[in-house]
Amino acid sequence: MGVFESLFATLLDTGLGEGIWQYIPCGFASRLVKNYFIINYPSKYTVKLN
What we know:
Elements: H1 2-13, H2 28-40, H3 42-45
């Protein structure tokens, strides 16, 4: 079960889980950490377009 959830969480972190990650608990950790860094350190984790 742990291996399945790890693989499923990895899929949820990609574009496949874009609309459903907030309803599946194994996808919380990676998305919330990624969103934290994007919000608090935007210059390092975003691309600036001219």
